[in-house]
Amino acid sequence: MQTQPKLTIYALGPVQVFGGDRLLTDWTYVDSEELFFYLLRHTRKRKRPASQAALSLADLHGRTREQIGLDLWPDATTKQLNDRLKARLYDLRRVLGQGEWVIFEDGLYKFNATLDYWFDVEQFEEQVARGKSTNAEPAAIIAGLQQAATLYRGDYLEGLRQRRRRADAQFSEGDGSGREWLVVEQENLQRVYRETLHTLGDVLIRAGSFGPAAEAYRLAATKDDYDDEAHQGVTYALALQGKRSQALEHFRRLVKRRPDTPPGPEIVALAERLKRGEELAPRVMPVAAAAVAGTRPPDHSPRAPFQVPTDRLGFVGRALELTNLRAALTQSEGPRRYCLAGMGGIGKTSLAVHLAHLLRDQFADGVLWAHVSTSEPLAILDSWARALQCDFSGLPDLESRAAALRAVLADKQVLIILDDIWDAARGRALLVGGTRAMLLMTTRDLEIAEVLEAQIIALPVLAAEESRQLLTRIAGQARVAAEPEAAADICQLLGHLPLALDIAAHRLASRPRWSLSELAERLRVQHRVLSELKIGDQEVRASFAISWEALEAPLRRVFALLGVFGGRAFTPDAFGAVAEMEARAALDQSDALVALSLLSLDRAEHYRQHPLLADFAREQLEQAEAAEARMTHYYLRYATEQRQNYLALEQEWDNLAAGLSVAHGQKMWRELIDYGDVLTNAWFARGQFTYARQAYPLVCAAARELEEQDAYIAAMLNWGRACIEQGDYAEAKERLLHGLQTSREVNDQHGMANAQLYLGRVALELSDHDAGPPLLAECLRLFEQLGIPAGLADTLILQARIQYRHYNYAEVERLAKLALDILRTSEKYQRAIE
After folding, report:
1. Which of 213, 676, 734, 820 has its CA 20 to 30 A from that of 604?
2. What residues contact 273, with CB distance under 8 A and at least 6 apart?
3. CA separation for the pair 816, 762 (Å, rounded)
């Protein structure tokens, strides 16, 4: 039995590093993880004599301290580089655990490639090299290229690159633009991937496998829409399948999508040939397509069972997943078990059904299907046995029947699909395939996939274009084209969830008088979204309820409390405050829900729940007001603690706005005023004027309720300031005049001075030269009387701006110098009293 590598490293697509079977995630610093991959890629193996038996440390290239500094921290001083490298290396060794994975030898830092590890990038490059071998058989060439395409799950370290940018911004260590090494690696691997798909498409066409060739070229075109050779390959392969209308439609869509860069002359000429009905004669290798794919010729006899449900007409989307899974499930080497994982309604079963229909001819001995959550394993095995013309009814128990069926399938080329697994023991009882069988599972529980040793393919929600295509296929092209903005709103409101979109589109199709705008408005009504998502026997709420009912009581409470966040990103600390538990316990519970596809990792230290799942969670929440109050108090404490840390506040704008809204709804007047007080500087410093304009009316209302005139006047004037910043001078003037009047009524001279200062700015912006000077003259008098140097300086600067408009440059200089002298004197005075 092959031993598992000590380190299993995935860098193409979602970044994952496994130590044995444990996912390593507890990096203290983002750039510790980056340093790991940097050394991994820059530790090259030197060529050794064939007589040398084993790889030694001397055979490894590495990087000097200075090279690491230039590539990872180009702006760091020598001391900063030494301190940072020391801390990151310590963190890296702590995370990786046992084994000297990073070594320092002869002045070089190296990844210790002499130890046992598996790295998907190296495997990808090896398979590409295998596919380029001129001496290999066609089947081996295609197998290598298909395996390479399967390994490329996404761009190199893309997730890490995004986390790196956020960390750079948060800790003021640059903008990440110095990571040329990462950009170069990513672009090189992208180029190799596109070239691989082109080569694969060409070889498949020559072998007569036109369908897989079209998919390979389509994937290349998806990666680069301006790749005319890829689009030409798609068009050509579709035409060779006899799908001329689809080929021409692909060309027409390309022309429409790229009005700025029309297709090249070769693809235009090909389209013209198709329009004229000319025959296309491909060059075909003297190898049967089945042999090229590494499979036995398909057997269409009645003895090859096909138990898959009916495929959905006009399946759309999932092009990347389909291409990768088709390649994976038809390969002769590599993993034999795969698992589609994701939340309810994400489309796991639909994708499995469609894939099974596409691959029917690739599995000579049939395709076996089981809906595991609703059928007993004994009944499933009996159904499979009968489909294979066997009768095991005389065998007494589950183990005996599984053993008998395992013997039957020992040398058969079958695809076994286990849909909706909720229990690992049930799934294990159905692992009866032999060495030539492929297994595809679907589940919401990632731990089940791990236990059953399956390669996990996590399904995301649909891309925006795929969502629109799904809506169009069911509701009709004309209706969607007539209301493109409403269609985009519907897709956004439903979070691009396939089941929700399918139901919404069928509701439109069954209600021809409804407009898309009307449906979008109905979906915008909070707490009614899930009620709208039901048609026939399909209901989004019912799909979510299955996951809910499978949870144990403690996790049910945790899941329900997530509804407080309404689909916004949140940290374990915030969730711990809402759930009244320690942050570590909150983190553990959150990770448990991630494993069940009821929550997802959003960004560094943040989780996020799909908005429709959040609506369902809120429906289950008891004492929602108390939970929301705890959320409001948490974010008020957070804002108070971080009031000078604008970067930290920026990560929580939506949650802070939600806290304000809850405080208003629950009449938490004091908290509302405190929110406005601690966030005002951040709103204006970071240009968050929309948030400010939404908040100040609520703060004004709270101040009225508490009869606090100072807070009311300050909020009203800040409301006017925010309107000025957004160019809404009419409302700004209205708010400022009201603030001025209120200040006069209570003889608040500071409020009067500020109101007139801001009104002076409005007059300047509106070129009202008559109104500005008297307002600012009164400001000067009041600020001087109050002894506020900053107010005096602001007023003088505004007067200077007015003089600048009149080309009185000497007066501009005088006023500006006077303002500067006041500020300097004020600073000396402040230092003296301190």
Report:
1. 676
2. 280
3. 20
Nearby residues of 703 by Cβ (< 8 Å), 6 or more positions away: 669, 673, 709, 711, 712, 715
- Asked if 699 and 676 touch (Cβ cutoff 8 Å), the reply is yes
User: Are residues 392 and 440 in contact, defined by beta-carbon separation less than 8 angstroms?
Assistant: no
Q: Is the pLDDT of residue 116 over 70?
A: yes
Tokens matching residue 635: 């974010």
For CA atoms 755, 761, 764, 765, the dihedral sign is negative
Contact 646, 170 (CB under 8 A): no
Rounded to an integer, the average pLDDT of 805-815 is 85
Cβ neighbors of 708 (< 8 A, separation 6 or more) are 673
Residue 132: φ, ψ to 5°: -90, -5
Cβ-contact 689, 726 below 8 angstroms: yes
DSSP designation for 360: G
Return phi, psi of residue 820, to 5°: -65, -40
766-773 contacts at long range (C-beta below 8 A, 24 or more positions apart): 766/729, 767/805, 769/802, 769/805, 769/806, 772/798, 772/802, 773/799, 773/802
- Give residue 27's pLDDT: 79
- Residue 829's pLDDT is 43
- Encoding tokens for residue 330? 């038809």
Q: Considering the chain, what is the average pLDDT of its residues? A: 82
Please choose, from the candidates 683, 719, 728, 726, the residue with its C-alpha nearest in 3D space to the C-alpha of residue 701.
Answer: 719
Assess contact for 616 and 544: CB atoms under 8 A.
yes
Looking at the predicted structure, is the pLDDT value of residue 293 above 70?
Answer: no
**In this structure, what token pair is assigned to residue 468?**
């629109």
Q: Dihedral sign, CA of 624, 625, 630, 635?
A: positive
- pTM of the entire structure? 0.53
| Predicted local distance difference test score (pLDDT) of residue 670 | 94
CB-based contact 490:471 (threshold 8 Å): yes
Q: Do residues 17 and 24 lie in contact, with contact meaning Cβ atoms separated by under 8 Å?
A: yes
Residue 72 has pLDDT above 70, yes or no: yes
365-383 pLDDT per residue, tens: 899 988 887 778 888 888 8
Is pLDDT of 733 > 70?
Answer: yes
Tokens coding 522: 């109905």
107's tokens: 């002045």
Phi/psi at 785 (nearest 5 deg)?
-65, -35
Copy the structure tokens of residue 228. Answer: 């005319």
Would the CA dihedral through 194, 200, 204, 209 be positive or negative? Answer: negative
Percentage of the chain exceeding pLDDT 70: 88
Whether residue 172 is predicted with pLDDT greater than 50 in this model: the reply is no
CB 7 within 8 A of CB 101: yes
Is residue 480 within a helix (H) or strand (E), and if so which, with residue range?
helix 477-482
Helix (H, G, I), strand (E, B) or coil at 118: strand
Of the listed ranges 126-140, 288-302, 330-344, 807-821, the least confidently predicted one is 288-302
Q: Which residues of 706-727 are buried (b: 16+ CB within 10 A; e: fewer)?
A: eebbebbbbbbbbbbbbbbbee
User: Measured in whole angstroms, how far is the alpha carbon of residue 611 from the centre of its chain?
Assistant: 14
Residue 289 CA to residue 738 CA, distance in Å, equals: 81
Contact 471, 501 (CB under 8 A): yes
CA 364 from centre of chain: 38
Q: How far apart are CA 42 and CA 399, in angstroms?
A: 51
- Please report where in the chains the tokens 């004309």 appear, as a residue: 478
